[in-house]
Design goal:
By secondary structure, the protein is of the alpha+beta class. It is built from six helices and eight strands, in the order E-E-E-H-H-E-E-E-H-E-H-E-H-H. An eight-stranded mixed β-sheet has the order 6-5-4-7-1-2-3-8. It is globular and about 55 Å long.
């Protein structure tokens, strides 16, 4: 399996969705990027860690990493290996015994920042999901399959209100594909 190493580059807010944010990750060359949806709690927690004004050394994630010296880059990494119904699937990979522990994607990014773990995405997934890095701009296009069902419904409603019927049709088709896939399972 080929994988692409990713770097966390920042947080962006989703317009019209104040309770959600996007965690932006780029490849090492910073030419392509992916976005992982997070809730406001993770957005806040990551914001604390990227701010130079807050000492987080006594916060629970940092303390747990300090008391477990194995929770370090030598022994663990984060791997994104799929996306299902708009949710990236993340794994905490134990490099010593290859144990895979599923995690919520946004929590995996937080853990990677706290424990200084490397972040990877399966290459095929990265090539399918990434978009050109618009360097310095605070916006990004998201693939439809990266939207949660709730985000799809809200986007469809907005597309219809804006009379953007081409977008509405694409959103409706994505929703139908997911419904069919869920029925087939």
């Amino acid at each position: 399996m080929s994988k692409v190493q990713l770097l966390f580059v920042g947080i962006s807010e989703i317009v019209g969705g104040p309770e959600l944010g996007l965690l932006l990750l780029t490849d090492l060359s910073r030419t392509r990027q992916v976005a992982i949806v997070c809730d406001s709690n993770i957005e806040y927690e990551i914001g604390l860690r990227t701010s130079k004004d807050v000492d987080t050394s006594r916060f629970l994630p940092e303390v747990l990493c300090q008391v477990s010296p194995l929770m370090a880059n030598d022994h663990y990494e984060i791997l994104f290996n799929s996306i299902i119904d708009g949710q990236y699937k993340a794994l905490l990979v134990n490099k010593d015994d290859l144990t895979l522990t599923p995690m919520r994607a946004s929590d995996a990014i937080l853990l990677a920042l706290v424990a200084k773990l490397e972040i990877f995405m399966e290459e095929h997934l990265f090539n399918r999901q990434s978009v050109h890095n618009m360097g310095g701009q605070n916006k990004m296009a998201l693939p439809l399959n990266a939207l949660s069902p709730d985000m799809l419904r809200r986007a469809l409603k907005q597309a219809i209100e804006d009379e953007n019927y081409e977008l509405a049709s694409m959103l409706r088709d994505e929703m139908k594909q997911r419904e069919k896939r869920n029925l087939d399972e």
